[in-house]
Input
Amino acid sequence: MVNIVKEKAGERLVHAFVLGVSRYRHLEDGAEPTDPGRDSGLAQLTSAARSASEFAAWVLESVPEERLASLYVNFAQSPDEKLHPDVAARTPDPQNATRAAVIADWRAFYKKCANNRDATAYVYVAGHGVQVGNEGAIVLLEDFGAPDESVFWAALDLPGMNKTLRGSKTASLQFWFVDCCRERADAQDYGAEKLKAAYVGFDEPEGECDAAPIFFATLPRQVAWAHANGVSLFNEGLLKALRRDAANDPDDDGTWHITTGSLVRALDDHVREASGDLGQKVHLAGHLATTAEVVHVFAEPPVAHLKVTLIPTDAYDVATADIDQNDTNVVVNASDWPIERDLPSGIYIIRVNGKSQFPNKTESMWLRPQSKGREVRLT
Output
């Protein structure tokens, strides 16, 4: 529908395209049901638009303002679905994610990325999805099932669009997030020709960009799950990973960052754990390079969870602790054992005072998002 940030010129710009479709007007439970919509057997969603808006909010909060040159958003939310407030405040009403609106924004986004070699691009798409053949993912738009149109007239072929954007003159780094199911749609159900109509964008360009990985929410032929009236498991894990869990150890200059490899590991760990017996797993595909390409650079050290326990636990009744970083007290005379604090990642000194009943102990700790805690033995 709109670019919700101020356009900018310069070097190392960032462009983002975000789409979330929960409302489908032509499904059986939609406002304008049609035979193709009914035949799909699909129903309205409650989390796709919200999930997409949460990713857009991360872009707004994490990309430096002077570098964020475009953020195109398209939402079709269900009646009770709330967008992230920071994004909703920038997004004009009425909001929709029809074929016409989405393709218009994609073309504008494509032009921003074209002939802008040093740019970075983010693409996040959420909604009903199907798979044709053994690979890929087709995401359905708000007017899917429109009368007198082919089955996938209002749908996006995301791997196809990835191929048409990743040329040698376009944004050199592109990170695609496809948050949808990938259950197979067979030609015997729809007809082979009708399955070829999903939008793929422009002609495939010459050459290749440096990297354009696609993070699929689930494996081929599998379902992607979500919290009803909340966000998807993929979105939940992605934002936790981008904000903290996927951080690599800092470079020599102290800069913390996330790579393709660290992101897919943290994201898949979360999705596997959150889905439990449902068995959802993240799938990394697209144009892969070394998986060491930088997805995100932190402006400050990411927050990590510090947990300090004592052995023996009898010491909890008397012991206190001070925690220092760079000769500065960050925790003073704490006695709320086990001590738990959210602190910036880095090196800390833990000083435990056993109050004459137990030995005093001083230990250093390298605190990072993946830290599991520190057990101090007063023996």
Remarks:
- The first strand starts at residue 2 and ends at 3.
- The mean pLDDT is 93.
- Residues 303-377 form a domain with the Immunoglobulin-like fold (CATH 2.60.40.10).
